[in-house]
Amino acid sequence: MISPFPPRRIDVVEWDALRERLLELGLEEPWYGGPLGRHVAQGDSRLLRLSFDNSPAALRLWNFLLSEEERLFAARARGDHIIGTMKDLGIVPLFAYALPRTLAFYPDGAWWIPCVMELSAGLLRFADEIGLDESFCPVRAMVGAFLGEGHFPRPDLVTCSVGATCDDFSAIAQRLNGFGVPVLWWEMPHVRAPDPGEEVERLPSGQAVPAVQVRQVEVEFARIARHVVELCGEPLTDERLAAAIARANGIRAQLDELRRAVFLAPRAPLPALELLIAEMLAIHYCSDRDETEAVLADLIAETRRRVASGAGYGDGTEVRVFWVNPVADLTAMNLLEACGGRLTGTDFMFCHALDPIPVERPPFTALALMALSDPLAGTAAERARRVAAGARRFRAEAVLVSRIPGASHCAYEGEFIAERLRAELCIPVAEIEVPPMSDSVQPVLRTRIEAVLEAARKRRSER
Amino acid sequence: MDLPEFACFSPFLPAEWGAAHGVRLRRLARLPATASRAAREGRCTYAANAVELARAFLAGGGAGAVFTTSCDQMRRSAELLAPAERVFLFNLPHTWETPLPHRLYRQELLRLSGFFCRAGGRAFSEEELVAAMRRFDEARRELLARQERLRAAAFARQLFAFHERADGSLPEAGLDEAGPARGPGIAVLGGPLLERDLWLFDLIEESGGRVLLNATDTGERTLPRCFDRGRLAADPLGELADAYFGHIPDVFRRPNSELFRYLRRELEARAVHGAVLVMPVWCDFWRAEAERLRAWLPCPLAAIDLADDANGRERARTRVQALLETIS
Fold it and tell me: What is the ipTM of this complex?
């Protein structure tokens, strides 16, 4: 259903009233639909602090996201195979979705539970108790979520990429393993430039990498595939994998259309927060690929209609901001817009889950190339290059690098990105740090965001 | 003519590999006095110091610096150095349970060989590699034999000197007149130390303990296993790779079960009554294991941040003294 109302930010209470009105007007919801307020009653109290888009497509998106736990437990009850894929963000789940009655999800996603439930789940407290204090990334919440089994069922198989990954994640996953959770570790090599005379492969981004690294990842993927096959008792043929890649590319194409519309339209047809959630669907389809396609189709239809009619948020004068890294507290995305900015480019650490997978290559090779495109597996300079290219493509006027508290990569990347952006595009860059509950630092965040937006406006007026 | 010199910071980089190429692969541990002491939030102090050491080394005419991907911090620190063509980042696998990472490690040694050759080293011959391996192996055996006669800090200095010389020669024996310390046995575990951190060993011994095991990243734990003479002759590169990558237990490895296996074995073999865990500030790998070690070890544990300031030392003193009071 296309929204009969102009775009407007509303809170969760308004949403429940609006939903009643939409039902009267003919809104049909999927089985996981319902009032957003029920999620608040179930403990997702952060929703009370968020502003939401008022379209039926956004309602479906939120209900889809917030029903994932329920859907995972339903899958467990049905006897489906469940694979917990940790860290690689967007590649290994394809092995699961290539097979019938098999799904994959990222236990890493538990990093948002302390925010969404405003610490009431006690996951960070548990992490503190086992020595994973606040010097670690908020993904430390994953251990309690895993062991407590209240947020998702225990997966039948758990994979984790290590090597060229952040130390926090590797250390936290090792602690999980120390608590008796079997983990299938696989090696993700640091992506380097080819040495003189070395055989070269090209990533979809055009970056040259040593062919030997592609072969290494292929070997690891073949090993993971063997474990998946053993679990599921179904052959994982090239045809099945190719079909899973084709579906993944369809979803990536949907997101590409959505992103281009949101980033390039004169007025933002969709708020930053909803775009962040929509992008996240790419990594494991929020545990349901069919629904992901349907949710994105609704968002695209709504966005197309808004763009065609000139509807959107703001008046088109907002500062265009490229955002780097996901935020531990979702309210930060609302804050950007409250400060007078709009999202026109993102690198939420999973660009490789958004880029099309090359279909002309054998499936394992294609997936290895995508894994090597992970922005965290290569150099900070390469990530900065991609950020600069994205900022140029979407005409960003400022870049915000959102540091994840405690994350090892964040202590290094901001510097490289800032240097590159300043040298290449001469646009202002600022780093902010967003904790899972940012209420106490919101004045500081606001000041920093306003300052960078102000610098961008000044630059705009001088041109 | 002086041999080309390369700085490194990882026990997984065999100095004998450098020697076979006619270069010195020196593991540095002495921070220059001019080094910046300012810590940046989130950056591991050891990694930051490694960058300082490498910068000074390169500025002083060093041929190159070799970092590894043993952790994200060291991996990213390599990128802070210039010029990039004089920096080699060794892809050190974290996994070890399948053949692939062992193959990858060996491939990286060969890639490092190319780097040495481009920077003034020579292509290695098998005979030279075997000779270098024998020389280093004997030196390590001799070094370990000295341990019982030395105080902990003196032994650690000998290790540092051996790694820094990187030519297979040993420093002067320099035996302590005082002989080994007495008191309850202490194991020191944890991350890498610099020479200026050795006050910690003195502190333990001044407080009434005796360091029986230096299982830090720069201690005996990270020495390669002794070479097998038969395999050394048949496949020296394979033996080198296996002695280092196949046997050094470390916290970053996945799983890190071999570290615990090593600790169990060594603690059972020595009369250890307490343990001190030293962690560079912002080192995620060791910090994450601190509570697990506390629960797992058969003895009390004092965890210490290696903060580079007077307050840090004072905190360490208090913890070590409290540990020794507990076990005495």
Answer: 0.95
